[in-house]
Amino acid sequence: MIAYIKGILASVDPKGIVLENQGIGYRMMMPMRMESFPKIGQEMKVFTHMHVREDDVSLFGFRTQEELEAFELLISVSGIGPKVGLSILSTLTVYELKIALMSEDVKTISSAPGLGPKGARKLILELKDKLVLDEFEDNGSKPQTAGLSEGENDAVLMTIEGLVSLGYSRTEAAVAVKKVENAQSYEPEELLKKALKNIMI
């Protein structure tokens, strides 16, 4: 019905924002990753999802089309409502969520408030096969984690497994390695050092 709204950011609170467009203030709930918000009074574009129940009509907003699609995929799972969907996207970026689902990382997914290990396993079971590897492309790079893509060199896989053995989740490990420029050109020991620096930032 409403694909997106472009307007002036009027206010931000823990539950979402008010976006003013032509004298109308649209209140919408959003994933609260504050680094993604402009300053009050600046223009922003928000992709929207209208959720209709018998006793309530709510508007949900997202900074990107990809984030909106991830939200709609999450709430398509029985038992996962919009509040839990927002909680997940407030805890994990879309990229981190996709890595976690594909690598069956229950620990990372269940870190979202309102979603326990049982819910995380259900998400993995129902959504893993719906994700296409091409959807993971981020600035031309696919996630570098065991079992997620073919052709990764031994150094990358060994580094990820090394980080997991140190107690980091597979998602944290994959994201840390991905941040290393030209990761596949390093020996495992050097790559591990660089990836650890990324985790500690």
TrEMBL record:
- Is Ubl conjugation found in the keyword set? no
Q: Does the keyword Cytoplasm apply?
A: yes
Predominant subcellular localization, coarse grouping: cytoplasm
Subcellular locations according to the entry: Cytoplasm
Quote the SUPFAM superfamilies the UniProt record gives.
Answer: DNA helicase RuvA subunit, C-terminal domain (SSF46929), Nucleic acid-binding proteins (SSF50249), RuvA domain 2-like (SSF47781)
Q: Where is the Helix-hairpin-helix DNA-binding motif class domain?
A: 72-91, 107-126
One Pfam family of this chain: HHH_5
Q: Which UniProt keywords apply?
A: ATP-binding, Cytoplasm, DNA damage, DNA recombination, DNA repair, DNA-binding, Helicase, Hydrolase, Nucleotide-binding
Q: Name one GO biological process term.
A: DNA recombination
A Gene Ontology molecular function term of the record: four-way junction DNA binding
The record's region (Domain III) falls at 152-201
User: A cellular component term (GO) from this record?
Assistant: Holliday junction helicase complex
Describe its assembly: Homotetramer. Forms an RuvA(8)-RuvB(12)-Holliday junction (HJ) complex. HJ DNA is sandwiched between 2 RuvA tetramers; dsDNA enters through RuvA and exits via RuvB. An RuvB hexamer assembles on each DNA strand where it exits the tetramer. Each RuvB hexamer is contacted by two RuvA subunits (via domain III) on 2 adjacent RuvB subunits; this complex drives branch migration. In the full resolvosome a probable DNA-RuvA(4)-RuvB(12)-RuvC(2) complex forms which resolves the HJ.
Description of its domains: Has three domains with a flexible linker between the domains II and III and assumes an 'L' shape. Domain III is highly mobile and contacts RuvB.
Purpose of the protein = The RuvA-RuvB-RuvC complex processes Holliday junction (HJ) DNA during genetic recombination and DNA repair, while the RuvA-RuvB complex plays an important role in the rescue of blocked DNA replication forks via replication fork reversal (RFR). RuvA specifically binds to HJ cruciform DNA, conferring on it an open structure. The RuvB hexamer acts as an ATP-dependent pump, pulling dsDNA into and through the RuvAB complex. HJ branch migration allows RuvC to scan DNA until it finds its consensus sequence, where it cleaves and resolves the cruciform DNA.
Report the HAMAP family cross-referenced here.
DNA_HJ_migration_RuvA
Which family does the entry's similarity section mention?
A: Belongs to the RuvA family.
Protein name stated in the entry? Holliday junction branch migration complex subunit RuvA
